[in-house]
Amino acid sequence: MDFNDTPEEAKFRAEARAWLSANAKPKDPSKIKAGVSQKSEAERLVRAKEWQAKKAEAGYAAITWPTEYGGLGGTPIQSVIYSQEESKFDVPGGFFEIGLGMCIPTMMKWATKEQCDRYVKPALFGEEIWCQLFSEPAAGSDVAGLRTKCEKDGDEWVINGQKVWTSGAHFCDYGIIVTRSDPTVPKHKGLTFFFLDMKTPGIEIRPIKQMSGGSGFNEVFFNDVRVPDSQRLGDVGEGWKVSLTTLMNERLAIGQGSGVDHEELLKLARETELENGPAIKDSNVREKLADWYVQSQGLKYTKFRTLTALSKGQVPGPESSIGKIVSGPKMQDLAGFAMDIQGQGGVMQDTEESPMAGAFQNQWIGAAGYRIAGGTDEILRNIVSEQVLGLPQDIRVDKNVPFNELPGAGSKK
Amino acid sequence: MNFDFSDDQKMLKDQARKFLEDKCSYDEVRTVLESDDSHHDGVWNGLCELGFAGAAIPEEFGGLGLGALELCVIAEELGRAAAPVPFSSSIYMFAEALKLGASDAQKSAWLPQIASGDIIGTLATAEGTQAPSPRTVKASFSVGKLSGRKLPVPDGETASVAVVLANTGGAGEQALSLVLVDLNQDGVTRAAVDTIDPTRGHAEINFENAEASLIGDEGDGWAMLKRVEAGAAVLMSFEQVGGAEAALEMAKEYALDRYAFGRQIGSYQAIKHRLADMYVKLELAKSNAYYGAMILSEEGGELELAAASARISATEAYRFAAQECIQVHGGIGFTWEANPQFHYRRSKLLALALGSASRWKDRLVAELEKSNVA
Predict the structure, then answer these.
(1) Domains of chain B by start residue, with CATH
(2) What is the pLDDT of residues A131-175, one digit of tens each?
(3) CA of B305 to nearest chain A CA: how many angstroms apart?
(4) Inter-chain touch A311–B2, beta carbons under 8 Å
(5) Which residues does residue B145 pair with via DSSP β-bridges, in sequence order?
(6) C-alpha torsion angle, residues B66, B70, B75, B78 (rounded to 10)
(7) Last residue of one domain, picked from the residues A233, A253, A273
(8) Which of chain B's residues have a Cβ under 8 Å away from the Cβ of A271?
(9) Whether residue A317 has pLDDT greater than 80
C-alpha cells in the first residue's frame, strides 16, 4: 500500500510539471481561498482562452481524447495526474469545463464525422465555448419532463420555449439542447436533441441573479428559433438516449466543492474567544472540528481508492459518487457553525470585519446552491441506492402516460 | 497510486471469509448469546488452526511474522461475522502491547502460546463507569505486587494473562505503568459481568497482591497505552467496517424482500435514502481505515491522527448501519430471533471498547493543534 506513481505515471507527471513550470506561475499560497476574483469576467475570459490554446497545443487540454481531435490518447489516470499538477499553478479556468466535459463528448458520440471535424478542435483550443440547455422552470430533477417544443418545418426545426440554469450562456458560441418533439407519447419517448449556434435569431439570454448576488447562470428563451435538421443528434424521439451521454459526464465534470474547510475552522477556533475561553478548547467545537476533518479525510482517501482503480486500468467503482453527497452539506454546516462561533458578529458579511474576509458567510450562502446544482442531494441518494445498492426505482406514475395527459405537465394548454 | 491491499492479502481475506461463512453463521453467534460461554470455542480454535492468532507475531515468538495489513483484512471479516472470539483482546491489545514494550523474556514467556491460540491474553484498563486516566486509576503496583479492581475486562474470564494499567505513584501522566500479570494465581479472583453484548465475554477481576512485572519503564504506562490503543483503533476500525457492511447488506436484503402498501419497502425513498446514507458513511469509514492501515504498517509518525480518524469514522458508520438496520426491519428487527441485534450490540461494544468517540475526537484535535501551529 502506497501513494506512489508507477514509473510510467512518474514520467508523465514529471513531463507535465516541467511543461507547467515553463508555461505558468506557481500558486501563491497566501492568496488561496481569498474568494472572488477581482478581475471582470471579460478579462478572465481573455486570459482563459489564451491559456486553453496553449494547453491544447501541448496536448494537455483533453488527455483522454483521441489524437485526431487534438487529444493525447492518454489514460484517465494521466488526466488526473495532469489536473493534480495543474492545481498547483495559478492558471485560469471556469469557462470550458461544461463544453469539454459534457457537450463535446456528446458531439463525439452522436454527431457526424464532418461535424466533429468542424467543432471539436475549436472547442478544445478555447476558440468556441459551449453550453448545455437541459433544465427548465418546470423540469429540474425530472429533466425528462421538459416542455420546450420543436416542430418540423421542411428541412428545419422550429424551437419554442425556455431553458434555465444555463451556465455561461451569455459568453457561449454553441449549445446542446433537448426538446419535446412529440407530446402525445410518454415523456422519455417524445424528445429530440440538437446542437445550435447561440447567435441564432430568436434566442434571448437573461442572467439569473442568484441569492448569493452573483450571476453564473442564465435563463434562455427560444422564440421561433430555426435549426437545420442536420444539427439533430440522434433520431427523432431518441433525445433522451442522447441526453444520457451528456448526463453521465455531468458528475465527472462537476468536481468536489472547494472553499473553507476544517483547516480554516481550526484557525478560526484558535483565534476566537468564547465566553468560557478559547473556542478551540470548547468540547463542542472540538467534536465538530474532528467530525469534519474525518469527513474530509474520508473523501480524500476515497478519491485515492478511485485513483488506485484507475491506475490499475480498472473502471472506478461507485465510491466516487459519494463526494458531492458529503461535501455539500459539510460546506453548509461547517460555514454555519463557524458563524456561530463568531457570535452576534457572525451576521456580518464584511471583508474588513469578518474573519477571512467573510469566507464563511460567503460559503454559507453559496452552499445552499451547491447542494442543488448538478444533481440534488436527494437525486444523488437515489442514484446511490438504485445504481450502487440495486434498490428498485421509485414507482413512476408518469412512465406509460402520454406527456400531454400528465397532471401538471401543462402541454394540454 | 496503489492504495489497496495486495493480492495475497485479499486471498487471506477470502480465506477468512470462507471459514467464517462456514463455521460462524449468525446461528453460531446466537449459541454464545444464549449460553454463559465467554466466546465460541469451535470458531476460535478454527481461527487459531488457520494461524490467524499468530499472523502478526514475529516468527521468533512462534508467529507467522506477517504485518498489520494482514491483521486488518482478518479483522474486517471477524467484524462482518460479528465473530464471538477473543481475537481483539488477545491480539490487538495483549500481543501488540507486548510487542511494543515487553522484554524478550516476557515475550518468550507468553507470545508463543498466544500465537498458537493455546492461551488468551487481554488488556485491563477500565475501573468501572469512568474513563481510566492518570487521575482516576486506583489499581496499584509496587515491588512486584498488583492490587486493585478492573472491570469490565474483555475476555477477562477466560484469559490466562493480562496487561494491566496500574498506578505506580508518579506525578501526572507518569503515575501510570503497564504491568504483566499471570491470571492463574492465588492473588487473582474473577467473575463474569453482564454487558450489552453477551457474545463477547467480559469480567471483573480483583487483584490482591498478585505477582506482576513491569512492561517497559515505570511511569511510561499512559504513553504506551495510547500507542497500543492507536494501533488497536486501526485494527478495530476494520472490524467496525466489516460489521457496518454486514448490517447494510442485511438491511438491503430485507428492504428487497419486504412488501408494504403493495410494493417493496426498498422502493420508498425514506428507506432508499437511509440505505444510501449507510453506504456513504461506510465508504468514508473504509477509506479512513485504509489510511490508518497504511500508516500502521509503515509505523508512520502520523499514527495517532490516522488512528483517531479511522476510529471516529468507523464508529459512526457502524453505529448508523446497525441501528438503522433494525429500523428498516421494523418490528421483526426487535425480536430475539432476528439477527440485527448482533450488530446493534457489537457496534456499541466496539464504540466503547477503546473509549468513546468524544475521547477520540479530543485526541484527534489535540493532534491537529500540534501539527498545525498557527
Answers:
(1) 7-116 (1.10.540.10), 121-218 (2.40.110.10), 223-371 (1.20.140.10)
(2) 999 999 999 999 999 999 999 999 999 999 999 999 999 999 999
(3) 10
(4) yes
(5) B142, B211
(6) -90
(7) A253
(8) 374
(9) no
